[in-house]
Design goal:
The structure holds 2 protein chains of 2 kinds. Chain A is an all-alpha fold. Chain A contains 10 helices and no strands. The chains are: A mainly alpha, B mainly alpha. At the A-B interface, helix 3, helix 4, helix 7, helix 8 and helix 10 of A face helix 1, helix 3 and helix 4 of B.
Chain lengths: ~240, ~90
């Protein structure tokens, strides 16, 4: 293990033995995914067919989860090609362990937890980690006066963001901000706000404490808000 | 005997927004947070923008599988089925 990987594992809160861990079994939990209730039910059906080796079911599951997996993998590795390898390696691990999945918890959380183990195992996180202490303020300090009150308060843009920017311009603004974001913040924000995992699931997938999950989420969302403000302001 | 705690200032409020939305503030801090919002249109606006940011981020559409990836995954499945002959179709 290189020093960079050790540092990354320490920041993520991963146990030192993570590289030899079995495919994790998830604890049974009441599932309260906001957005993806129907797909979760579908997952169980597809999984049943996949156990029998059904290729169409496999492709449906891969297509459904691939983007989230690639995005998460890319927060651990530096190239798209390596991220794709990690995703494929994850699916092979899933297929080999499929009879151990009991289907009582979210397949997505199970998949993503395996993926994170694989990404770490690959030892390819390099020295990309940023210590929590490096995380900056939610809003530029220059926008407050000496007493901590707003000197440059946020302008109102909520209702007209889509009108002024157009829906087509909003998505790239968000995507670009995500790409610029430190990887761990990107991982947490996309799992929460794009993929719809709850905080318990994100903590489980990334081996994070609730406090660190919130710190990363806070910084990530703050950066996205600023990016949207900038994008609306440019119009 | 409650300690005298100062009222929150805007710069502190923006750092507590996520803990507020995640329901991770103590009851007392939550009250202080909401008391500040009640008298501060700028921080109210800021909170609304964070909520809007969350909503807009949630509308990102996942990318589709490329034909090459589709092919790679087909290969992967066949490899797995070959590993366990007889147990899968």
């Amino acid at each position: 293990m290189t020093a960079g990987v050790i540092a990354a594992a320490a920041v993520w809160g991963a146990p030192a033995s993570a590289h030899r861990r079995e495919i994790p079994r998830l604890v049974v939990r009441q599932h309260h995914d906001r957005r993806n209730l129907a797909p979760v039910d579908d997952d169980a059906r597809f999984l049943e067919r996949l156990r029998a080796g059904d290729e169409a079911a496999f492709m449906a599951l891969v297509a459904r989860h691939n983007d989230a997996m690639l995005r998460l993998a890319s927060t651990f590795v530096s190239s798209r090609a390596v991220a794709e390898e990690v995703v494929q390696d994850t699916w092979l691990g899933v297929l080999r362990g499929i009879d151990r999945f009991e289907g009582r918890s979210s397949l997505k959380t199970w998949l993503l937890a395996i993926l994170v183990n694989r990404a770490r195992t690959a030892g390819v996180r390099e020295a990309r980690s940023v210590a929590l202490a490096d995380i900056g303020p939610a809003v530029d300090r220059a926008r407050f006066d000496a007493g901590g009150g707003w000197s440059a308060p946020p302008e109102h843009w909520i209702e007209n963001a889509e009108e002024r920017l157009g829906a087509a311009a909003l998505a790239p603004a968000i995507r670009e901000a995500l790409e610029r974001m430190p990887p761990r913040q990107r991982a947490v924000v996309t799992l929460r706000d794009v993929d719809g995992l709850d905080s318990d699931e994100v903590c489980e997938v990334l081996s994070l404490s609730q406090v660190n999950q919130r710190v990363l989420l806070h910084r990530g969302r703050s950066l996205l808000r600023q990016a949207l403000e900038d994008a609306v302001g440019e119009v | 005997m409650a300690l005298v705690r100062h009222e929150l200032v805007c710069q502190e409020v923006v750092e507590l927004v996520t803990d507020y939305l995640e329901d991770a503030l103590s009851r007392r801090d939550r009250r202080r947070f909401e008391r500040h919002l009640a008298g501060c249109p700028h921080c109210t606006e800021y909170l609304a923008q964070i909520r809007e940011t969350i909503r807009l981020t949630g509308r990102l559409v996942p990318a589709d599988l490329s034909p090459q990836m589709r092919e790679d995954f087909g290969e992967l499945l066949r490899r797995w089925r070959d590993e366990e002959p007889g147990t899968r179709r």
